[in-house]
Amino acid sequence: MSEQWAMRRGFILAAIGSAIGLGNVWRFSWLCYKNGGGAFLIPYFIALLLLGLPLLTLELMLGHKFASSPPKMFRKINHSFEFVGWLAVINVLVIGTYYAVVLAWVMDYIGLALLNSFSAGNASSLFTWLVGTPALVIAALLLTWLAVWYTLYRGVSAGIEKACTIAIPVLWVLSILLVVRGITLPGADTGINWYLSPDWSALGRGEVWIDALGQTLFTLSIMAGPMIVYASYLPKKSEIPNSAWIITFANSGFSFFFGFATWGIIGYLMAMHHVNNPADLNVPLNGQGLAFVTIPTAVGSMPGGALTAILFGTLFFLTLWLAGYTSLMSNVEPMYAALRDKFHAPRKKAISAIVLFSLALGVVLAFAPHAIDPVDFIAGTINLIWVVFVEVLIAGYYFGVDKLREFVNPYAEYELGKWYDYLILFVVPVALLAILGYGLMSTAAISPVSFIVLLSMVIAAILISGKPWKGGDEQ
């Protein structure tokens, strides 16, 4: 492995950048409100310790132990497992293609904020207009992919590490500014009370615990891809368990902290419209609607005039874009690492080809944004969960989780004990099956678009894994 992180700090910041993404801004605070406010923190913290942290540690150990991409890593364990690795990196890349389109919307909204376009009180129609204007989306998509291409083109230490060393501290500074402004808005305390006030009865509902489990899985970028590849660039004598703790709680801390900005803004809207319940606002409180409709609605009417609206709106969407940019890089790097391992593909040529391919798919989605949800259902939910489930079975039962512990413990600040084996062998698989089962039961039948995407990924993984390794059969 010729490429490595220059410093441990660079690796940790890059991993935090992979974990912190758009969902940290518009999902966690909504889940708290939906699932009992402050009471949700109990199942979330339990899920973090029993599912999120053990899985993140497992992926970091796998990447560090085998120092290779997921396809080669699985192949080293057993040749027949290579297919799983290819499906994982293809799945991650597909997630990146539609994630980049949403990031393009964010970039366009930076421009709209600078033009003070939110003051007219037309946030809903503004978003509809943007999504229905492919030319603007494609222009922002091109700029977004250009930034990602340039960063990855420069390599691990000179590209990813340097970019995240700048982007992650800036992301936190911008977030602090937004939180301070959010909690000082008139009526902010009302929204924050809805965010945190505990409803202890919610803990008796099964879906609350499923939401907590699902959030820990998705928010930590556990995909059998990005974290494995990032850990593969670590020097041999590297600390793993404590790094996983730092990454986990930096990511979760960001989600919780940013919730004060989000719900401060929602509280301001409640005060402005004289309602006592956020549900009475008639604006979306979750997902893309929160970012592209609710926040601009509040920004356009904030006290302080046009300058305040321009400044706050620009800061919000710049923060969102930075969070997405560092995550998007980690969606591309696993595919490059896989092509490098199997076909000896040079970084610059491989990154350029991957970005052009992803850009082309993104252009298609810019003209058909309705296809994003069914693609996300397969790539961002179903595939992601079962691939990680198979990863756990292979690493825990077939290879042996005890071997991974023995590999990292000599350099660990806090050694992993036998208790960790029981988490990986029993607790984590049951939790993953619960999330997958609940998701399938609560979702309608797979759409034609979802089926086509799934079939395409499976066929691609089969075809690529069947190709010979350049230079011979790699063990």
Explained architecture:
- It is a single chain.
- With 475 residues, the chain is mainly alpha-helical.
- It has one domain (8-97, 152-287, 326-337, 366-465).
- The protein has 19 helices and no strands.
- Helix 4 (41-66) crosses helix 12, helix 5 packs antiparallel against helix 6 and helix 17 packs antiparallel against helix 18.
- The chain is globular.
Labels describing this entry:
475 residues; globular; mainly alpha
How many β-strand stretches? Answer: 0
Number of domains: 1
State the low-pLDDT regions, or none. Answer: none
Q: Mind summarizing the main beta sheet?
A: none
Topology as a string of helices (H) and strands (E): HHHHHHHHHHHHHHHHHHH
Please bin the fraction of helical residues. Answer: over 70%
Alpha plus pi helix count:
19
Shape: globular
Compute the average pLDDT: 93
Radius of gyration: 22 Å
Q: State the oligomer.
A: single chain
Which band does the percent of strand residues land in? under 5%
Q: Which structural class is indicated by helix and strand composition?
A: mainly alpha
Termini separation: 15 Å
Describe the secondary-structure layout:
Layout (H helix, E strand, L loop, with lengths): L7 H12 L2 H5 L1 H7 L6 H26 L3 H8 L4 H33 L8 H9 L2 H20 L2 H28 L4 H9 L9 H14 L6 H7 L8 H33 L13 H13 L5 H39 L3 H21 L4 H37 L9 H24 L6 H18 L10
